[in-house]
Design brief:
This protein has 192 residues and is mostly helical. 74% of the residues lie in helices and 0% in strands.
């Protein structure tokens, strides 16, 4: 790995890196769309509209994001999502027609102690890590990646992985460390 990377969030926020934006959209579009469809039962076209609005707000305001001031990106994104959903509900007069179910769900999403909010947080972190794993894989040789997968993700011992791959146990530890370092760099600020 010859390239050292700032976190994905930092590349989007400060550098306006187009590849980073594509990855951010690839990570968050299906995640937010899934929340809209499953938890809020929005129709596909409505879910797509909300996702587009959330990402547009993120694009407009990402330069303002400051972890020290606003907290985690996940919480910031959740707040934007809830605000976009409130706007959607007002626009479609759901709140005025007595649809208090959406309002109740929005309160649950905002409440860090609510099960729905905790599930969104878990899903966020899992989705981001899965996408980042897919993305950083390209920076490593097949042997390095396989050693990392077996040792870190599958909890196989270094001795077993080394025997399987024809490398030393120390090489397994180094592979795991290199990939973990890259993942930490990419995930900084996105996953708490």
């Amino acid at each position: 790995m010859t390239e050292t990377s700032a976190s994905l969030l930092e590349r989007v926020r400060v550098q306006s890196d187009s590849d980073a934006w594509r990855l951010l959209v690839a990570v968050y579009s299906p995640l937010i769309r899934g929340w809209m469809r499953r938890d809020l039962r929005l129709k596909d076209h409505d879910a797509d509209d909300v996702v587009q609005e959330v990402l547009a707000v993120v694009a407009r305001r990402i330069a303002e994001f400051d972890r020290q001031r606003t907290g985690s990106f996940r919480a910031w994104l959740k707040s934007i999502t809830v605000n976009c959903l409130r706007s959607f509900a007002r626009k479609h007069q759901q709140a005025a027609t007595g649809d208090s179910q959406m309002l109740e769900l929005l309160h649950q999403i905002e409440d860090p102690g609510a099960e729905l909010s905790r599930r969104w947080d878990r899903e966020h972190d899992e989705c981001v890590m899965k996408q980042l794993l897919d993305d950083v894989k390209r920076y490593f040789t097949e042997t390095t990646w396989r050693a990392f997968e077996r040792a870190a993700l599958e909890n196989a011992s270094a001795d077993i992985v080394a025997a399987e791959l024809g490398i030393t146990p120390n090489a397994v530890f180094i592979a795991r460390s290199r990939v973990m370092t890259r993942l930490r760099q990419e995930a900084a600020g996105l996953v708490d």
